[in-house]
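Because discrete structure vocabularies remain unfamiliar, we reproduce here a specimen of the format, pairing a chain with its fold in token form:
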Amino acid sequence: MEAPGCRRTQLPVLLLWVNGLMTLGLAGARQQTNLCNESLMLEKLPACGKSFEEMMKKVDSKKWCNLTEFIMYYDNFTQCTEREANNASCFWPNPLAEGFITGIHKQFFSNCTSEKVHWEDPPDEILVTLILIPVMLTCAMITLVVWCSKRSDILV
């Protein structure tokens, strides 16, 4: 039978060993040891763009701003850029791939603007009223609580 003190010293050693395994990637994580071949990636990414361009020809240009019309094509384009970046031992997304994707966006979606609602403050009369009502109600409730606490003989 082991002494309790021996188990206490084995636990930190076990934790350090497990941490070492995880750091080395033996616990299921794959480390990337190759350097990114940026020139290869930049050479291969235009094929993804060309393929996306061919697929987008099937969609009416008036519908290019409606994502539901071409979501599958865009998904294929995204997967292609990710695959080519990974084949070149590069992380995805990376600044070069993002620059390429931004170029594709400018080519196909530059006329798509999001119609944002422009919020304006209400007129001053309404704004002052909306601020003063809760302040006055809070003051009234505090006054009521203080007054009732001083008049505890009536409440009993």
